[in-house]
Specification:
Elements lengths: L4 H15 L8 H8 L3 H13 L3 E4 L5 E4 L8 H9 L21 H19 L2 H10 L9
Antiparallel strand pairs: 1-2
Helix pairs in contact: 1-2, 1-3, 1-4, 1-6, 4-5
């Protein structure tokens, strides 16, 4: 899985909103400033996350953005799916016809295991967990592949 800046920025924005969850909307300029994200690009990302039901936006002088549900109910997988779609580690996984060697390829089997482990980690890691680790400054790797 290759993470693009879009996915990275989206996850950082979600973590920022998780830090202020329950305190009302946050202006995109504040998120952009704290997370070092270009504001125009952040606005595009927030629009995608809003369409996917992960973020709510409020217009007006006291408007801004906030998580649409509790941080513990949003997984990394949901954010990544919204922003990146499915990104396999190798093109042959979703499309075996991509490579003539796919049917009996020993490497493909390993890539399938790596993909399954990656998806499990993304599905089991919530924005709340990430926000808690961020607040406490924990940098330990939680998973080993």
């Amino acid at each position: 899985m290759k993470l693009t800046m879009k996915g990275d920025y989206g996850l950082r924005a979600m973590l920022d909103m998780a830090a202020y969850y329950g305190q009302g909307p946050i202006e995109s300029s504040d998120i952009a400033s704290r997370q070092y994200i270009p504001e125009q690009y952040l606005d595009q990302i927030l629009m995608v996350l809003r369409k996917e039901g992960l973020v709510k936006s409020v217009r007006g002088p006291k408007g801004g953005h906030m998580l649409a549900k509790a941080p513990g109910q949003i997984t990394m997988a949901q954010v990544m799916q919204a922003l990146e779609g499915y990104v396999p580690p190798m093109e042959c996984l979703p499309n075996p016809d991509f490579c003539k060697l796919s049917p009996g390829c020993a490497l493909r089997e390993v890539w399938q295991k790596i993909d399954a482990a990656t998806q499990e980690i993304l599905n089991s890691t919530t924005i709340e967990e990430l926000a808690q680790r961020h607040r406490t400054g924990t940098t330990e790797t939680m998973y080993y592949i």
